[in-house]
Amino acid sequence: MSAPIAAATLQAYERWAPLYPPVAHNPLMRAEERVMLEHWPAVAGRCALDLACGSGRYANLLAQDGAAPIVAMDFCVPMLRQVSAADPVCGSMMQLPFAGAAFDVVISGLALGHASSIRGWMAEAARVLKPGGTLLYSDFHPQASRAGLTRSFKDQNADTCTVPHRCHDLAAQQAAAAAARLTIDVVHEVRVGIELCEPFAGSERFYARWVGLPIALIVRARK
After folding, report:
1. Overall pTM > 0.85
2. What's the pLDDT tens digit per position in 100-116?
């Protein structure tokens, strides 16, 4: 991503880190995680990467299912300090600091929108996957972003912060996967009022306005 956007994104996550536990901690994340687990690959005894791991939510789930070894990579050091179920690595998801064919499984949760180039991101994910390996990722849905919804949070001072996000349409993701010689076998949308239906403060009005809108996208691909 461009330097100003990268700096703003890092600043946002540094502000979020003290309030960001390594579990799904809001309704969107819980809905997203349920769908990710529906399409979860077999990971027991397999080498796995939690890419753009945040505080290690998916590293924890990989460990629970017996993946080993597990690496958790992120660019935000305060987030990495919370990782306990994997070897933490600080790095850029656009230039992964790993050898080719290093992992059987790459998992990435709600991070694709921080990639400056969908083709570059997909090529790097494919490069570090072993033949026969699986990439499973989620992201804030492009349609939700175009509708004006944002990923935001309140920091320790109760100030609202919006996380910068780039829109990578599904067609662009599919083209990038094909260019990286990955075969997509799952595309699953998380929709408001359907997969995302947990009540929260103001949810009645939110669901009435946005019912049916895809708000998160889960994609699985194989090398």
Report:
1. yes
2. 999 999 999 999 999 99
